[in-house]
Specification:
two-stranded antiparallel ribbon, single chain, 596 residues, alpha/beta, 12 strands
Amino acid sequence: MTNKTAHTFHIPVMGTGYTVNTPLRVAQYGISSVVSIIDDVLLENLRNFYSKQMDLPFQPISSKTMDCRAERITAYLNLMDKMVKSKFEEVKDSFIEKGKEFEKYMDLLPDVSTLKKEIQDKVKSNNYLNDIKGWLNDNLPLGNIDVNIMTKVDKENCFEGEQLPSEYNDAHAALRGYANSTLESSLVLSAGMNPRLYGYLEQFNDFYPNKDGYIKKKITLKVSDYRSALIQGKFLAKKGIWVSEYRIESGLNCGGHAFATDGSLMGPILEEFKNNKSDLIADTSELLYAALQTKNRPVPEGKLDLRITAQGGVGTSEEHDFLLNYYGINSVGWGSPFLLVPEVCDVDETTFKTLSNAKEEDLYLSHSSPLGVRFYSLKGNTRDKMEKEELKNGKPGSICTKRLLVSNKDYTENTICTASRQYQNLKIKDLQSQNLSQEAYDLEIEKMSRKTCLCKGLSASSYLVNGLDTSADGDGVSICPGPNMAYFSETATLKQMVDHIYGRFNLIKRSDRPNMFVKELSIYINYLKEEISELKDPDKKCLRNLEKFKKKLLSGIEYYNSLSEKINGKYDQIIDGIQKDMYKLESELNQINILS
């Protein structure tokens, strides 16, 4: 397979269901995307669905099979791999037949693409179609079917009443399912370091390089700062595992689970990666080669590739171009805007309408995740409406069937989910026993009811779009777009969205959209204000931490104000706009008093 890439963007994972089959829609055009493999029940249902479509035999993998989770994941990924490769062959064959699929592949490529020019030159200089088809087989890039695992979502499991070893934990089984698949792609590990899971990588040959530096299954770490990248990169290198990509994501200007940094902003973080990339490669390479020698594994003869990518709030071709050219980013993640592209993501009709009408205030940083991590949500989503109605009828929470996000032991010996009916009934009994005032009781009930069943809500849309049976989990939908979604409001085709990314079309009709860096800072300032407002009898350490957070934000503003000294030419207008807005936000930030 060629090492070339067709595009300068990728489509990140969105929920459990929104990009679960996105590779089937975009990979044949050279576009890489990321699939969540947390929900093996959804994957099994989709495998059945696609098997029927392709008239293939389907052998269900029973939940009574001890390793059903890993086996279902492997089976689904193998089927997707087969389908994508078949579609890719159709694209290449359509060149001979002068069909629309190859034409679509070419039209989607960026205008400045060297690949596009190579193909055009090849066609001009060669009259033999079969020769060109042979060249395409060797050089035309296929988009990756990358997969995501949230490292901390690693629940222990039992089988026939017996506790299973750690390799049957949720994240471990998902890793094994991917490792045993036929895919040649990347495993995107997110939500921080899980040493035991990282150690489990050592058991699978596909994660190791050969002497030429080829790695069949690469590791991508989603990180929010350089220090975390260096620590995790070294940890894995000592095990002989190379991190092929560090995917930098904004702490708060993103979709899904949001992990606020210590106040570090995207621009300064990207600058640090830019300035230290060579050191990062050198430090981790040395550890890697030593580990491979110790394991008697092949040591690559040349340097291993290292990609730095970024995502979070990108919304214009100018921002996209700036990240590529100033920070040296290899690929930019475009997530939430693709939720309005029916060709790409599974979004049901009701949610699609609510999403397309959403304004800034409708996209909020919620407390709905049972994991206790802040989570972006959409006001008016059907899951929240359904659960609020159930609460009014004396049925709090959801019946917990998937158990993917269980994490609480407040009232039980075994972990349960804070969004579950079991937990919320126990919580209500506890609150009733405390003789709270009506006001205090109502507040605690409101806090409890914020938690929603994301296991069901984030997969429901895929069931609805593909006509799958929703009787087991209901059809209430949760969706997790980032704040950038507010500036996109129209249905778009894949071609229109790609043209928007590359500056050939404009999907944003509003004129008041702030730059991604400005938006991120404003979100962080609001987050700081919220943290201060929720303080109850804060100690000095807590106040000092908030003051450090504020100072880190001010340091970020200082960085943005210094950019004009580093950049000349075509980005002057972007920098001028950023600095103008930064002045206003700096004034707002300075008015926040923490220690006084």
